[in-house]
Structures
1.
Amino acid sequence: LIDERQTTFIKDKHILHGILILNEVIEEACRSKRPAMVFKVDFEKAYDSIS
């Protein structure tokens, strides 16, 4: 099962889609003067990699 909000490794969705959504959320928070919190999770260590 793939969550509908996943934007990477999905046909017809681009890696920058998440960044665009984040930008819209930040702009809306600023416009409405509502407090907001943004955090980024780095999943690099969660997956095996080849050196």
Note: The two ends are 30 Å apart (CA to CA).
2.
Amino acid sequence: MLHVQKTTSPKTVVTMDIGAFNAKETVLFCPHDRKTFLSDQLRNLVPIGGTFGFDVIEFCGTFVPGVP
């Protein structure tokens, strides 16, 4: 049975598809295996500790000034 290890404070996260939203993650902990479980959905959108989504990071990384 999983237990709640911690719940993070709400943090504003920005993606191009969803826009800005408040993300609050609940980290679960298995006392038997001593393993923690993070949100896969949040990890697929934003790097750990990040504010901007992978889609925003990629868009900014491929931006070339003066090219439409």
Note: The chain has a mean pLDDT of 93.
3.
Amino acid sequence: MTNSPIGKNSRCPCGSGKKFKHCCLRKGVTYSENEDGTIRKSVPMSDELGEHLEQLMYQRSEELGRELQPDDRLFENLLYEHVEHDLTQSMEATGVDPALIYAFQETGLIVSEENQHLISDKDLAAWQAAIDRYRSEHEPPQEDIAAFMEMMRQSNPEVWEVMKSMAEEYDDPDEFTNAIMVGPCPQCESSSTEDCECDPVIEDPCIGRCLDCRQLFCTDCRCTFEDADQAAAHECPEWERLAQLDDDDDAF
């Protein structure tokens, strides 16, 4: 089937509404259309990816016992759903920002400094919108954080002084909040930790995960867990104590 290149003055297939020459062509992206109207997108390949592809082609040729033909597939029975699932698990295991994982699931994009210039402005906007949407739904607004800090300043001066001292150690507000709410890893004492509210198995902000040694732990009683299932089933004695204090306050 014959493929014809998209004309420079045609509307860019990315959907931006711009002419192709003023849009994706500037990024080195090309489009072609076959006889049934199917549009194919081609992007420049990095040297590293080219070398990896050559290795895959060689391996596939060895598997077939002959040279590859134009219609041969490099990957048999490869479903996008399986690839997405495996990539998502890998990103979660390596501590990738949950907002970036969500954006990947919504748009199919993994954006980096190396490939950003190859992605259409419309796709980049959709990717950024997904990140913003995740943050608005899962992260507390700045005014809520400010109200919490003011409450701490007024209610407990000693704790407030400790928090101010900690704040001076962190340039990133997220790292500061994490240091207060999650704390260091009880196993290796690393400060690179996160809560597990977005973990599909645990779904609990009171369970922490160390990004260095991968240890799971309770952010309140600091006990550790062997796996996600054990962490999800945890009933912290501190929670019971706090609940009892609330009941005692209600009695008065």
Note: The first strand starts at residue 3 and ends at 5.
4.
Amino acid sequence: MNQLAQIDDAKYTLIGRLFTLGGSVFFFIGSLIVAILAYKSYQDLLQPQA
């Protein structure tokens, strides 16, 4: 493998890892939002209705 092919391969690997990291971050943020909303809904259900 020559040097240009290695650079190309490293570039594609980096791009793939960035997409993977971005997807993981979006999944984490979405999970956090859902957990917060679920907790708020649960707390609202525990409050007695006046």
Note: The first helix runs from residue 3 to 46.
